[in-house]
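hiii, so i know i said id send this last week but things got crazy w the move. better late than never?? heres the sequnce for the chain we talked about at the cafe, plus the structure i predicted for it. fair warning i was half asleep when i ran it
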Amino acid sequence: MAKVKTLKEAAEALGLTPQGVAYYAAMAGCPTVQVGKVRKYPWPDFPKWYRERLQDEGKPKSIDEAERRKATADAELAELKLATARGQTALIAEMEKAVNADYAKVRAKLVAFPGRVAPLLLGLKTAAEAKIKLTTYVNEVIEEIRERD
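okay and structure toks below
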């Protein structure tokens, strides 16, 4: 008889979560063995079946389905081209660059914060006075960050 694995062993061997293995185990035709109240996974039958399912997952089941998928893809591509022509899209690399620049700006402001605020707090007698100074400075920094170059 083929070797069997527990749910945890099968998950570890396939690089899945136990929930992922259970998901596939519930499918029709999945090779499993019931040992008492515990479901076991025959090896190498289960991983072979699993790999076959992965290969089949993206494939259309019929010519009609393939044609519908192609028509949908063509329509989505046409919409994307139109959105690009209208300037409604952005390249991921450009967005990453913009976001990284914003993060750098925020980091610089946070690093400078203690040095710029400490002198403002000297000589203050109450927490309320310190809160007013800090709030004012934080709001100034937020406005500076909002301003785009």
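btw The mean pLDDT is 89. thought thatd interest u
miss u guys!!
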